[in-house]
Amino acid sequence: MSSALPTSLLLNGRAFSYAAIREYPAQLDGPVNGYEAKVLDFVRQWLTGTQEFTLTTSGSTGPPTPIVLRRRQLEASAARTGDFFDLGPGDRALVCLNCEYIGGMMMLVRGLERNMHLTIVEPQANPFELVAADAAFDFAAFVPLQLKAVLAAGHAARLNKMRTLLVGGAPADATLTQELQPLSPAVWLTYGMTETCSHIALRRLNGPQASPSFRVLPGIAAGQDERGCLTLRGDVTDDQLIVTNDQVRLLDAHTFEWLGRADFVINSGGVKVPAEKVELVLDVALAEIGEPRRCFVAGQPDARLGQAVTAFIEGPALGPDVAAQLHTLLTARLSRYEQPRQLHYVPEFKSTATGKLDRAGTLRELK
Question: How far apart are the C-alpha atoms of 305 and 301, rounded to whole Å?
C-alpha cells in the first residue's frame, strides 16, 4: 500500500491528473482514442457530481438494453465492496474490464471513492501485456477468459502479489477453478448484473474457504419468486425489487446455490432438463478426458420429444476413442433424460461485447 493519495490515474500507460480530467476535454495534453475518451468522460462526470448514468446491459441473455442508474446506487455498491475487501486509500487497482459496462465502471467508482491508485487498460485477453513488468496491484477484477490467458502466459507470480481477485461476467469452468487453487490471494466468483450495480453476492473459489454457495453481501434482501428464481432488493437496486431469471436454492437468508437460468430449461418429452446442470457435467468431463473446451447445452427441435437435449462443443470433432470416453462419463453422471442426444462441434462460438458466451448468436449462425 502506498501512503500517498492519488492525484491522477494511469490510462493505457499515460498519466491523467484528476485536475485536468475535471476540465475534460479542454485541459488534456494530446489526443486520446475512443475508449480512452469514454473512460475519461465517465471519470469527469463522477468527479463533477453527475447524479445519473446510462449503461447498456451486456446482452448475454437478451438484446442489450439501456438502463439508468443513480449515483447513490453506485456509491452504495462501491462502499459495500470496499468494506468487504477492506479497500482503502493508496491501494492499487488494475482495471482491465470494459468500463462501458457495469463491471469495469464499478472498478472505476471503487477506486475513486476509496482513493485508490487506478491503472486502467483497454480490455484484452491478457491485460498484463499492457502494463509495466514491475507494476504491482492489490485488487483486480477479470472475466474468466482473461484469467485463463494470464495463467497461460505464466503470470501466476504476478497474481500472487495481489490481495484479492474477482472473477465474473461468466461462470468459472472446472479447468479454470482447478488452475486457481495454487494461487495465494483469495479469488472470488461474483454474482450480479447491471441492475444491481455489479455484484451483490460472492463465492470463494480457492483455498480452504472455497464454497459451492454464494454469500449475499450485507444489506441486500434476497428471496425467491414462485419459479424458484432469485429476487433482490437494496440500496443498489434503488430499493426496487429485482426479479431475476436465475433459479437458486436458498440455504438461508444470506446464502444460495445457483442452479441455472429459468429460460435455459429444456422441455424434452415433458421432462424439464436444466441446461446449465448438463453443461457443468459436460465441462468437467471434457477437462477429465484432456479436452478442456467451451461448451453449452440447448434444446433443439425434435419431432418426437419437442426439444432434444443437444450439446455444442467449440473446436474440432473429438476422435472416436475420446468421444467414447466422454459418452461413458456423461452416461454415468446424467439421467437418461439429461444425456445429450447429439454433439455438435462449432469452430468458434460467438461472444458478447463483454466476452460472455453468446448462445443465441451461436445458434443463429448454425441455422
Answer: 8
Query: What predicted TM-score, i.e. pTM, was given to this entire model?
Result: 0.82
CATH class of 8-261: alpha beta
Surface-to-core class of residue 59, CB atoms within 10 Å of its CB (0-12 exposed, 13-18 middle, 19+ buried): middle
Tell me how far CA of residue 69 lies from CA of 97, 128, 197, 289, in angstroms. 19, 31, 8, 45
Strands 164-167 and 139-142, how do they pair? Answer: parallel
How far apart CA 347 and CA 294 sit, in angstroms, is: 11
In a 3-state reduction of DSSP, which class is residue 363?
A: helix
Domain 269-366 architecture: 2-Layer Sandwich (3.30)
Res. 62: pLDDT tops 70: no
Mean pLDDT value of segment 189-210: 96
Mean of all residue pLDDT scores within the chain: 92
Top pLDDT among 71 and 337 is at 71
Element holding 313 (H helix, E strand): strand 306-314
226 Cβ neighbours under 8 A, 6+ residues apart: none
- pLDDT for position 2: 47
Contact 125, 146 (CB under 8 A): yes
Domain residue ranges of the chain, discontinuous segments joined by +: 8-261, 269-366
